[in-house]
Design goal:
By secondary structure, this protein is an alpha+beta fold. It has four helices and six strands, in the order E-H-E-H-E-E-E-H-E-H. Helices cover 20% and strands 33% of the residues. A hairpin with a 6-residue loop joins strand 3 and strand 4. It binds a DNA duplex through loops.
Length: 150
DNA sequence: GCCAACGTTGGC
DNA sequence: GCCAACGTTGGC
């Protein structure tokens, strides 16, 4: 079992949206590092922190899990869509996605500011300056530590 | 293969 | 809205 963190802008798709729909294809990832993690490492049942970015209080808001392992992100094939990539094709898909399922929403947001204060978490890419990775692995000890902050 | 220009992310 | 950090693109 591995642990992850995935970012999303709540204005676009937040934890409440996921709670409503239960499962959701995590489409639109257009970063190779993030793609590789989804395609090569994420396994069904892996747990994921849901992180809200670009909002009033950025931070971790809940937990989800991998419901379906990586498959081609078809939004790359739609010329009308905002995730279109002309270099991707049906035969040779460039981008992949996983399906995620809602697990729980925390009673409160564990804010980025709070996470940054934790000495135990200084090695997390999340709290490092300039980090732009939208999907990142979380160590088991970090996972437990963060849950204990609730 | 280098690197400048440009676009995007995301905190503040 | 600003801007730092970083990834991607494209000329050479």
């Amino acid at each position: 079992m591995q642990y992850w963190l995935m970012k999303s802008e709540p204005d676009v798709f937040g934890i409440d949206d996921l709670k409503k729909v239960k499962t959701e294809p995590w489409d639109g990832v257009r970063n190779y590092q993030a793609r590789n993690m989804m395609r090569d490492q994420m396994k069904k049942g892996d747990k994921i922190f849901f992180y809200h970015s670009n909002c009033d209080v950025p931070g971790i808001v809940g937990v989800m899990k991998v419901a379906k392992e990586a498959y081609p992100d078809h939004t790359a094939l739609n010329p009308e869509g905002k995730y279109y990539d002309s270099k991707s094709s049906e035969d040779n898909p460039r981008w992949f996605m996983v399906d995620v399922a809602f697990v729980k929403k925390f009673k409160r947001t564990i804010s980025l500011a709070e996470l940054k204060e934790q000495k135990a978490l200084v090695d997390m890419p999340l709290v490092r300056k300039g980090n732009r990775l939208s999907i990142m692995p979380v160590g088991e000890s970090e996972w437990e530590y963060i849950l204990n902050m609730l």
